[in-house]
Amino acid sequence: MNASGELPVRSRGTIGLLEENCTVCMLCARECPDWCLHIDSHKEPLPPLGPRGRPRVRHVLDRFAIDFSLCMYCGICIEVCPFDALFWAPDFGYEATQHADLTHERGRLREWMWAAPPPAPGAGSTERAASDQR
Amino acid sequence: MAVMGLAAPDPAPVRFVLQWGRRYALTMANVGLACCAVEFVAASMSSSPLLQRTLAAGTGTTELLVISGTVTDRLAPAVRRLYDALPEPRYVLSFGACANSGGPYWDSYCVTRGIDTVIPVDVYVPGCPPRPEALLEGLRTLQRQIDGDLRVPPAASELRG
Amino acid sequence: MSPDEVAAALGPTASISAPYGELVADLPIADWHGAALTARDVLELHFFDFLTGVDLRDQGFQVVLRVWSVAARSGLQLRTRCSADSPVLASVSDVYAGAGWHERQAAELLGIGFPGHPGLEPLLLEPGSGHPLRKDTGLAARAAIPWPGAKEPGESDRDLGARSRRKNLPLGVTARDLKQP
Question: What is the CATH number of the domain that holds A43?
Answer without folding.
Answer: 3.30.70.3270
